[in-house]
Design brief:
Blueprint lengths: L2 H9 L10 E5 L9 E8 L19 E4 L5 E4 L7 E4 L5 E19 L2 E5 L10 E15 L16 E5 L11 E8 L2 E2 L4 E7 L28 H4 L7 E4 L5 E5 L4 E12 L8 E12 L2
Parallel strand pairs: 8-16
Antiparallel strand pairs: 1-2, 2-5, 3-4, 3-6, 6-7, 6-8, 9-10, 10-11, 10-14, 12-13, 12-15, 15-16
Length: 288
Amino acid sequence: MKTTLLAGLVGIALAPAAFAHGLWLNVPPVTDGATLNIELGYGENFPHGEPIPAKRQHIFAPIELLGDAERRYSFPIASEAYQFTASEVPAGSWLAIATYKPTRWSVKEENGKNRWQQAGKQQWPEAFCMENTMYAKTVSFVGAPGKNAAITRPTSVRLEFVPEVDPSTLKTGDTLNVKLLANGQPLKNHQVGIAYNDPSAPVKKSAGHAHHHDHGDTSKFAHPSLAHTYAYEAASMKDVTDANGVLALPILNKGQWVLMTAHDTPYEDKAACDLHVDETTFGFTITR
């Protein structure tokens, strides 16, 4: 196991990692027969979700909750509500999926400041355009973990984590192997941020959505504005996938874990946009 990650985890006493401008899901496991709570996390206040502004609700696909044998639930983002409940959910493991659909955002410097618009280059000439997607998967369970092939199967999105096993079956001291896929291919030697939340700790609500980060050297990015998207690089905990695109994560404590990363590739039609910018997260809870 990589000593850099282990040292970082121990040294910061498993404090939460930085989480900026991201998408994730909070789905705590529940006892059999209890109501399953699903929270869409969007923004900068991990582990707490933020209301989805009305003007952005159309960007989000309905949240999907997938069980074994093609059992599924769907929760449309139709208001500023970002918390949902599912009652009478059968026992076993479940996979929750959230999707921020491909959306073009362009930036242009005006009067020394970056100005953003939800537009492509044809709508806003001479701007730098990024087509952004976000994809979040979280594993949970009702009663006890059970068979669910969807958890370890790729979903064929542009960027995703695929675990080797259902992480709900693991315990403290185990190692979770997760493959990172970009367009279906292993993404090797790629940095991953790691967030941890102890649900038993006192709740500390963050301030509202803010955009005040010191990202340091932004010269390695295709555009300086990507520093905000790639803010997971400042995470207290981070590691790198190996030559096969696999991240080996030591499970050092019970609680909520979230892996997060981003990846950019050139856009095919430069007259329309400059980059594909894909972000993805994978969450799970260790209960023992």
